[in-house]
């Protein structure tokens, strides 16, 4: 039963990711007083890219070829292991925070390595920017998950979700502050403003995207959308597990899936509103914002140590 739930989670998140991206784009258009494209536009774009021939740069090597499936597959694995419908991980091995952190770091590493592997200089600049965001946000996320592991007594995300859901995670203030820091870190990981890359600068957008075409570009674009949904799901699974099933019962799991969909939709809506309410800043100033997140994450560790 748990294996089936894990497969369903991965399939549903991959299938729903373009819809979530399309809805966010529609919200942006409405807030800018524009009509905007259809919420299904991402599906049309992906279908068009899958039908096209693939063209590769002459200087690209093996890394550039394996980057798209590795990027998409890593986040699909994370989706399969998250405690979304239940307060337990369907696959405990994939639900450990060490595994999750490594699986989140692997796509960024491959993404940036592929940018260097390509023959273009602009894609390398995009890869460096991707690494910069990772260096700025990953310490906060690691610190928050460490605080939650100590508070719940386990590095398993399912046990963390169960501890939060039953209000047994201690100390309470440290958990709340860690939740605030995690929300901010996840917002940055989702690539929202001002931590995104300008859509008009296609030559440096999301690292090596400009070096790909056809099915490889489709996998990367789908992977970016899946990443946003998986990161939002990680926050919901750990800090908003209320309503998730306690046992792998079909009816309870179905209700858990429905409540998960409502919670993640609310999180994505808030993220979309915030994204369209802030301005874009220069990349060299991003550290001023991310250090604030590191400070809140460190504060949760202080509260954990003193026990409040």
From TrEMBL:
Its principal location?
A: membrane
Is this entry keyworded Transmembrane? yes
Keywords, sorted A to Z: Membrane, Transmembrane, Transmembrane helix
| Range of residues in the leader sequence | none
**Residue intervals passing through the bilayer:** 66-86, 93-113, 169-188, 229-247, 253-274, 286-306
Q: Which domain of life is it from?
A: Bacteria
Q: Name one GO cellular component term.
A: plasma membrane
Localization, UniProt: Membrane
Record membrane topology? Multi-pass membrane protein
What protein name does the entry list? Hydrogenase 3 membrane subunit
The organism encoding this protein is Parvibacter caecicola
């Amino acid at each position: 039963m748990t294996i089936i739930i894990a497969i369903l989670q991965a399939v549903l998140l991959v299938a729903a990711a373009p819809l979530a991206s399309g809805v966010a784009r529609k919200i942006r258009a409405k807030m800018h007083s524009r009509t905007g494209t259809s919420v299904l536009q991402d599906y049309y774009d992906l279908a068009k890219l899958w039908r096209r021939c693939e063209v590769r740069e002459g200087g690209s090597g093996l890394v550039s070829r394996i980057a798209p499936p590795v990027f998409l597959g890593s986040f699909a694995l994370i989706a399969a292991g998250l405690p979304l419908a239940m307060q337990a991980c369907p696959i405990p091995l994939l639900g450990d925070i060490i595994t999750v952190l490594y699986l989140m770091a692997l796509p960024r590493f491959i993404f940036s390595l592929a940018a260097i592997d390509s023959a273009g200089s602009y894609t390398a600049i995009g890869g460096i920017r991707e690494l910069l965001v990772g260096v700025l946000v990953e310490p906060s996320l690691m610190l928050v998950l460490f605080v939650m592991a100590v508070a719940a007594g386990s590095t398993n995300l399912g046990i963390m979700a169960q501890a939060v859901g039953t209000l047994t995670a201690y100390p309470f203030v440290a958990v709340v502050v860690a939740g605030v820091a995690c929300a901010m870190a996840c917002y940055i990981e989702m690539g929202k403003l001002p931590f995104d890359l300008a859509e008009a600068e296609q030559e440096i957008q999301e690292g090596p995207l400009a070096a790909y075409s056809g099915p490889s570009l489709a996998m990367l674009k789908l992977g970016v959308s899946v990443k946003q949904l998986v990161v939002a799901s990680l926050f919901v699974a750990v800090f908003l597990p209320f309503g998730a099933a306690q046992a792998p019962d079909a009816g309870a799991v179905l209700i858990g899936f429905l409540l998960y969909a409502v919670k993640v939709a609310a999180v994505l809506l808030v993220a979309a509103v915030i994204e369209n309410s802030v301005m874009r800043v220069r990349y060299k100033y991003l550290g001023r914002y991310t250090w604030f997140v590191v400070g809140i994450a460190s504060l949760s560790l202080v509260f954990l140590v003193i026990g409040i």
